[in-house]
Amino acid sequence: MPNTALDQAALSQLFLDAHTHNAWQNKPIPEALLHQLYDLLRMAPTSANCSPARIVFVQSQASKEKLMPALMEGNRAKTMAAPATAIIGYDLHFYDQLGKLFPNAPDAASWFNKDEQTAFTNAFRNGSLQGGYLLLAARALGLDCGPMSGFDNKQVDELFFAGTNVKSNFICNLGYGDPKGVYPRNPRLSFDEACRIV
Amino acid sequence: MPNTALDQAALSQLFLDAHTHNAWQNKPIPEALLHQLYDLLRMAPTSANCSPARIVFVQSQASKEKLMPALMEGNRAKTMAAPATAIIGYDLHFYDQLGKLFPNAPDAASWFNKDEQTAFTNAFRNGSLQGGYLLLAARALGLDCGPMSGFDNKQVDELFFAGTNVKSNFICNLGYGDPKGVYPRNPRLSFDEACRIV
């Protein structure tokens, strides 16, 4: 059966009425919901199913405190208050998984690992796509998001990805937002400013 | 009112049952639907609302034929058949729009334009996030997607973004898919392979 548009309430929840949140209710995220979040986002497409995103969900007080010094001052208090903080990284050696992820092309790793620039470009592009999927999957599950890139990537890599080929991309607080922490909506570019039809 | 999870049908349409499409019904996409697509995706978050994505919707026969030589052989026939092909690019000079997009911080451009690497990283990260939003917004509107990175970025830039600071990121066919062109689902990484909770 062909798909039709989701109803207006769903479009509002995902896009039109959703806002970045900066204050959080004291309401935890059950571990099962983090699994459900990942089970949604992993299904959305990446190049040759390469799936480079690697995610650390920071929940414990001790791990939150470990993360704090790497964040810009203005991002600290709200991150301590969020029930979970996702560090979205990308694995520069993602191609080592392609035997499992893209079994119909046994040479798929060679499309990506021929040089560091190609590996980086594909890891960063697809890891960022998966970051976008995470944000919208969270909203689809009724969670609110507070994404941030105001932190020291190198420091986060040392703290959370030492000894791996994973690099941090961006960070996203997750939870149930307190509307008092929402800022007024900023303008967006019009269709004609950002798009054309040819 | 707090959000709750979307119903199972919506989660299936967005993530769980959605597939990349390779064959297309002969059913056009009205221009109003492309506007609706952009009006959804533009609302999802980017760093300081920087909104670097620039999109060309290739619909005419002449523009499709212009694009063809830049695509890998295996991507040509299906792209000719798709009712629309979105070229998702990112503007390396996105910071020139921040006066409009982030008016509460008059110095916001200086966060991004201090060097080329910083501008590139933020354009590519946020432009890719917006590409992910485009894919899921299309599915939310009942459209099917066929994303591709198998093309010559430099050639596409010369053909469609000459004289600008926009660079192509990836390409996505849009339309109403023919299920006969769907490949079997590839495996995904498990939660424990891609995530941890700390």
N-to-C series of helices and strands of chain A: HHEHHEHHHEHEHE
Shape of chain A: globular
Q: So how many helices of chain A?
A: 9
- Major sheet description of chain A: 4 strands, antiparallel
Molecular structure report:
The structure is a homodimer of 198-residue chains. With 198 residues, chain A is α+β, with helices and mostly antiparallel strands. Chain A contains nine helices and five strands, in the order H-H-E-H-H-E-H-H-H-E-H-E-H-E. A four-stranded antiparallel β-sheet of chain A has the order 1-2-4-3, with helices on both faces. In chain A, helix 2 packs across helix 7. The longest helix of chain A is centred in the middle third of the chain and has 25 residues. The model of chain A has no long low-confidence stretch (mean pLDDT 97). At the A-B interface, helix 1, helix 2, strand 1, helix 7 and strand 3 of A face helix 1, helix 2, strand 1, helix 7 and strand 3 of B. Strand 1 of chain A pairs parallel with strand 5 of chain B, so a sheet runs across the interface.
